[in-house]
Structures are given as C-alpha cells and as structure tokens.
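Q: My collaborator sent me two sequences in one message, no labels, and asked for predicted structures for both. Can we handle them in order? The first one she listed is below.
A: Yes, handling them in the order given. First sequence, followed by its structure tokens:
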Amino acid sequence: MTTSPDRLRTRLPEISTRAWEHPADRTALVALRSLSGFDLVLRTLSGLLRERQYRLMYLATAVRVDERQFRSLHLLRQDCVEILDAPTTPEMFVVQNPQVNAFTIGMDKPFIVLTTGLVDLLDHEEMRFTIGHELGHAMSGHAVYRTMLMHLLRMADGIGWMPIGGWALRAIVAALMEWSRKSELSGDRAGLLCGQDVEASVRVHMKLAGGARVEEMNLGAFLAQADDYERSGDLRDGVLKLLNLELQSHPFSVLRAAELRRWIQNGDYERILGGDYPRRAHDKDAKISEEIKQAARSYRDSFDQSEDPLIRTVRTMGRDMGAAVNTVGQEVGDTVAKVGKRLTDWRRGSDAREDSFSE
C-alpha cells in the first residue's frame, strides 16, 4: 500500500487536549492535574501496579508495531501523531485475540494495544479513527487517571461489606463509570480530528454494533436508532436505560455515533479544523471553576433537549412544581399582604381609639 496519505488532512499544531475533551471529562482532568503532589502519587501507584511488567508481557506475547511490522498501522499512527501534534509517539502492539478491542494503558509511558479481532474488522480509514481515538486517550492522560481511580476503588472494596461502605462504593463506581463514559466520547472526538472522515467514524460504531457486514447496514438508519432509543418507551423504559448503563465503562455504540453527530452539528468540529481551538501553552491557565460551569452547562443542555420519557417527565414535573411554587408563593404573598394591611388598619383604629379615650 502507498505510504502517502490518500488526501490532505488539516494539521492542528499545539492543540490542547481540552479542544476535544467532553466538558464532564475535562472538569475531572483539570481538577486532578491541579492537585499538589499528584505526580508523586501516580509514580507510587505505577510501581504498585507493575506497569513495567505489563509492557514486558506485551513485548513477549504480542507484535510491536513499527516500520517493519504492521507497517500500515505504523503509518496511521504517524499521521495521527503529526495531525494532533502529539509530544511523543506511544508504543503500539497487536495481540492475537478474537475479541474486538483497543485500549491504552500505562502511567509513565502509555502504550496502545489493538486486538487482531479489531484489526481484521476495520478498514484503513476506520483504523485511522481508532488509532486517533487511542492517541487522544494517551494525550489526555485517561489511562493514568482511570488506572489510579480504579486502583483506589479496589482499595475501597475492603469496606464494601459494611452497609454504609457498600452504598458509598456503589456511588464511587457510578461516578467513575460516568467519567469513563465521557472520556470515551472525548476519545471519539480525537479520532475524528485525526481521520477527518465523518462516515468512517460512524462506520466504526456500526461495526462494533453489527459486525463486518457494513454493506447490509445504512448510516442514516443507524443514527436514527439513537433517536428512536431516546424517544421510545415509557417511564419504565427510562429507568431500565439507567440500569443498563450504570456499570458500563463505555457508552453504547449507537449512542456514541449520535454524540459524535451532535458535536459536529454544534459546530465545534469545523471550528477546530478552522484553527479556532485552545493551545497547549494555555493549559496551565485553565480554571476548575470555569470547567465546572461548562460541564454543568453541558448536562443542563442534554437534560433540556432530551426526548427520553423519564427525563421528559422529570422536566415536566419540575416545570409544574415550579409553577405550583410560584402560585403558592404568590398566594402566600397576597395573604401576608392582606394580613399586614389588616394589622395596619387595626393599629390605626386602635391608636384612634386611644386618642379618643385620652381626650
């Protein structure tokens, strides 16, 4: 195969990872990066988690990607590194495994692992998106924070037998899984910025959902499934959706494609390709308070726009309760005003009576 790209792609020099990170993901990352002494904790945990041992295992059991082995994947990684202006090129391994999977692990030097099941499933441009997705994880430090948080979670498991500790652990798990799902959306955005091929990015999720027979699938119909999923059912289905998602580290494939479409429709993708994106040099100036506001705004917008029956009901109840509160408040205010007026009138009458008596 040719070593030159099939078309020119926009390079994004000095791009900050904040450009593609989902607001909820970015808030957690900015908060963690701002903690004093955090690097020391990471290095300690890295030693505990035997990161070097994992790398040695893949060196012994998988194939390391370079210019001599899996050259096509090596060139795709090189393209992605240049487009995202990555400071370093992470190592990449292909491991014999029929499961369709790709992941980024490691703290000091994150590396990417691709299974043969994934490599066999995806075409050239789909692999470009996937490698860009994993490079986005590496650049954002997702492997670092996910590994650290999951390790702390295992430590907390010791108190899981206690009733209060069990509920606390469940809350921690739910929070971690929510962050993990948002970090996957961030990775998808990085993958799209690397490939700059919207259809290829959607095809990846189509294949993850339905397998290799993409000629039997339809991109528009696939995306319409997300709309049907969100709108369909009643309150029971809304609750079941939450239960299905609770312990998932990744969003469902159909919904990931829809989230990527939403990001494009919001105009963020085109703005970044046009050069309007945050630069790495300004990362140190990022304020956690501003990131929290953006995350809150993102969740609020999703809540306001959602067609999910459960969320619609909660939204309607909120409006009805707000209207009821306003009505009650108005009635209370009117009553207080009337009572105040009567008291004033009574006092005036009393004063008049006292004046009359004194005379």
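Q: And the one she listed second?
A: Here it is, processed independently of the first:
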Amino acid sequence: METNQNPVQENPAQRIALELAQPAERLYDPAEAARIVHCLTNGCLDPEYILLFGKLVGGTPHSDAMAYDLLIVVRETPEYDWIQTKRILRYKVPIKRREVIYINLYIVTLSYVESNKTPFLFFAHAEGELLYCRNSYHFQRPKHPIDFAKAYADAKFHFDTFRTQGNELLEQAQDAFSESRNMRLAAQFSAQAMVYFYHTLYYVYHGQEFDSHDPVIMHDRMRTLSTKLMLAFDDTHLENVFTLPRLKSFLQKSPYGIRFDIASRELDIHMERVRKAAGIIENYCGLRLELYKELSA
C-alpha cells in the first residue's frame, strides 16, 4: 500500500508551506475509520481502493463540517448506491458511536476515474489518505496537476448558467407571490430555483452534473459543503425545518394538482430560506472558483 505522498513537483517554499499546512495531530480516529472501511468492504461494496480526502487529512477542504469524505473506486457499478450504502453504515456503525458523525460517500467506477480529470478527483487522489487498496490493484497518485484553467472555465460557465436561471426563477416567484398572489406559481418557481442552485453547487465542486433533481436528495449529498447551508435547512431539536420536503412536494403537486394550496405565510418562510440558501451557495461557489483560478496561474 502506498504512503500518502504529494505527487506535484513543488519548489522548497511550496513544500514547507504544505508541511506547515498538515495538521499537528489526526483529526479523526484511525480505529473508527477502520471500522467504516471494514463495513464498506465486507459484503457491502467491492472496491479497488478507498481514499479519505479533504479537511480530515489536511488536504484541500471539501466539507466545511467535520466529515469523512470518502472516494470509493469500484471496477463495476455496485448493487448499492451512495444513499443505500450510507443507510447500511448507519445500521452497522451508528452515528451515536462515532466521533465524526458525518460521512460522504462518492462511489465511482475505475473507468470514470481514468477518463475524467476534474479538480474533485485530483484533490482526492493527490492529497487523500489511502485507507484501503485491493492487493491486486496498484494505486498511483497523479504525477502532474490537472488543467485548472480549463476546470475554472468549465465551472464558471456552469455557475453563470444555472445561477442565472435560479435567480430569474426567484424573481418570478417573488412577483407571483407579491403582485398576483399566485401561490401555485410562487411555490413552483421557488422549488425549481432551489434545484438550479444545488446543481450549480454540485458542478462547481465536483465537475460533473448531478443525477437527481430531488431537493431532499441534493441537500443530503451537499449539506456538509457548507455549515451555513446545514443551518438553513437541517432539522434541530428546537425547530422542525420542513422546507426541503415541501419544496419537493411543490415540484410534484403545484404543476398538476388541481387542489394545490398553501398559506401565504408558510410559503413566505420557505421562499426566504431559498433566497438565503442561494446567497450561501453563490458565496461558496465563488470561493471554489477563486481556488481554481489561483491554481491555474
């Protein structure tokens, strides 16, 4: 198994800066990580290798919250997707018995890794800690950085496209709400706007399109990227935040349900949360784009 080495050819100043950036002590319990890996490899998935990347190993931050960001590379598409696998982990490695409660699983095929050069895959492979590797697989870190100028241009294009669509829908929702008092259109446009914003966030961070338009699933996939986003939509023991399920129902019922109705006060709450989330997402996307731009130089 290969040790965690930086593959990029850096000058001495860069090397010292990288060494200083490494955490003085581990930010996670190796025994806890080993239990998670054992669960993932013992009948759940059949991976070639598993990488822990991001904040916990002192790499380029991925999750803002403390979370196990795990890239799981498989040869064939597995029986369980990332949602089902997270459920299995909750059963076998309960949250109440973990020091780091959040786990993000990115299950991708080996062919996808070999044919795509995204910042997400580069950071994981260049900086990640190898937690598991099949004996027959020879894991290699990237020898050269990716083309960050191209990555920046691509992410910026998607950011401008989907952010614009989301903002336009928010404006239409507000007009329908305040001027015509059309709750159906206001609800539908607000929900569609949130989906566009989530697609924006996903593409900027991951370099690929998300395969779902369900705001509940999209939030579960991306919530740890920003603790502010978690605060906007996550339930707490003090308050039941039900905006995301309601947005999902808006998408399903407002275009077709003849009896669709919602109180204006409730809708105003949901719309305000969508507007707040839009600002959070725009800010985090901007920071990520700046990182790509700096690395391209």
